[in-house]
Amino acid sequence: MFGFRQPRPILSVIGAILAFGLFAAPASADPPLAFPFQETFTLVNPCTGLDETVTVTGVFYVYERGVHGISHRLDRALETSSGFTGHGSEISIDHDSIFHVQDQLTNGAGQHMFAQFLFVQDAQGRPRVFQFGLRCAP
């Protein structure tokens, strides 16, 4: 009769070991440099249509990737003058050839603001992808 065999446990263990060995970070990698970050700017609130002040604070991490260039990550907290608070992230890969920002904020009334920015450039520095979105979700 045709049937399926139960997978052998030893094959699963060997597969897991190989996957870990292939994808694990090198033990000799240097930890990232960390810098405190704060920036304040004015933005139009998509929920009210009014200008407001946005303050971003966080820690800026810089990673040296050898031949793959320098990457950075910014883990941050956001606060607006109209009472929205939230968190976000900013990631840059290979000397800013890929740059991604994503933020999520909420106010006391339960409104949500979402911001997203994506920029990708080719090896010659020409922009290939540019997307920006700022929206309100009640």
Describe this structure in words.
- The longest helix has 15 residues, at 9-23.
- This protein has a seven-stranded antiparallel beta sheet with strand order 1-2-3-4-5-6-7, with no helix packed on it.
- The protein has one helix at 9-23, and strands at 33-44, 51-64, 70-80, 85-93, 98-106, 112-121, 127-137.
- The protein is built from one helix and seven strands, in the order αβββββββ.
- With 138 residues, it is mainly beta.
- Helix content is 11%, strand content 55%.
Summary of the model, kept short:
This protein has one helix spanning 9-23; strands at residues 33-44, 51-64, 70-80, 85-93, 98-106, 112-121, 127-137. With 138 residues, it is mainly beta.
> How many beta strands in the DSSP annotation?
7
Across the major sheet, the strand order is 1-2-3-4-5-6-7
Structural class: mainly beta
**Beta-strand level of the residues, as a percent range?**
over 45%
How far apart are the first and last residues' alpha carbons, in Å?
Answer: 59 Å
Report the total helices.
1
Mean pLDDT: 81
Unreliable segments (pLDDT under 50, ≥5 consecutive)? 1-8, 20-27
For the sheet with most strands, the description reads: 7 strands, antiparallel
| SSE topology string | HEEEEEEE
Give the overall silhouette. Answer: globular
What is the CA-based Rg, rounded?
Answer: 22 Å
Helix percent band: 10-25%
